[in-house]
Amino acid sequence: MRTLILYRRLFAHGTFGVLCDEFGNELCKTVERPWLDNRKGESCVPNGTYDLLPHQSPKFGKCYALSSPELGVTVYGPSLRTHILIHPANRVDQLQGCIAPGLEFGVLKNDEGKNVWAVLNSKTAFNQLLNWLNNEPARLIIKAA
Prior knowledge:
The chain has one helix spanning 122-133, and strands at 2-11, 14-21, 26-32, 48-57, 61-67, 73-74, 81-82, 85-86, 100-102, 104-109, 115-120, 138-144. It is mainly beta. It has one domain (2-144). The longest helix is centred in the last third of the chain and has 12 residues, at 122-133. The mean pLDDT is 98.
């Protein structure tokens, strides 16, 4: 089983990280919601170890789901957090607790026309990550950078 390590930094406007393989090789950048005490739909998930499971989402199609019952995260529940996915998105406001990959960090306009931090080329990064994972389960370790 492959292991991924997400090194992330928490900011008031979002959580930004670097996703690496078990040898420290960078695979992509990431964006998530800010840490808001693990509130459903508003917060990134807590640091810890998760199972990363191939998943078919009605909204996003083929993606990966996080599961760690000890941390209150499962795919379908019952738990504090469900349906925490890795899927394409560029901005924090496009996420509800999930993780989005990108090729690099940048600035994009949000729906109100305001410049916000983001990841760029999310679909490309996501497809590269899917290829690398090869539809196999993996382990994801999330920790502070």
